[in-house]
Write a structure and sequence with these properties.
148 residues; mainly alpha
């Protein structure tokens, strides 16, 4: 069973990347354009408008798998800023300060910085095929190896 799970890992990671990026982009779009139940933020206001712009752009890039590591790094940093500057002064724990979403996005994007985009990403079109290709036979790899 582990062999099958290891083979599916790049595709599961790609699906994770797509879903997290899409949700992040939608959050930014709802803030910038007031769609999907969001409210408009005034253009140029700090930090709300800039955060929404980062969410839309970086979320879209991550969802597409284009410049994934850089976009995920910027997105993770913006969510760390949101947590520590906006939420953490209210209370120490995320459940007490309303910062669960910021904390989860921060760690999800940080994970993508280190793992890369996974399978089915536009990054694969521009990089070396052997560098990103999943291993064809992972029986000879250690169980903890990541073949992304």
């Amino acid at each position: 069973m582990t062999l099958h799970l290891n083979r599916a890992q790049p595709y599961a990671l790609g699906l994770f990347r797509f879903v997290v990026g899409l949700i992040f982009a939608i959050h930014g779009a709802s803030s910038l354009f007031g769609v999907l139940g969001g409210r408009d933020v005034t253009a140029g206001t700090w930090p709300g408008w800039y955060a929404a712009l980062i969410q839309l752009v970086c979320g879209t890039l991550v969802a597409l798998g284009l410049g994934t590591r850089i976009a995920a790094f910027i997105a993770s940093g913006s969510m760390a800023y949101a947590y520590f500057v906006v939420h953490q002064p209210e209370a120490l724990a995320p459940v007490g300060n309303g910062g669960e979403t910021s904390a989860l996005f921060c760690w999800a994007f940080l994970l993508l910085v280190f793992t890369g985009p996974g399978a089915v990403a536009l990054d694969r079109l521009f990089g070396s095929r052997t560098e990103h290709a999943p291993a064809e036979d992972s029986r000879h790899e250690p169980a903890t190896a990541v073949s992304v």
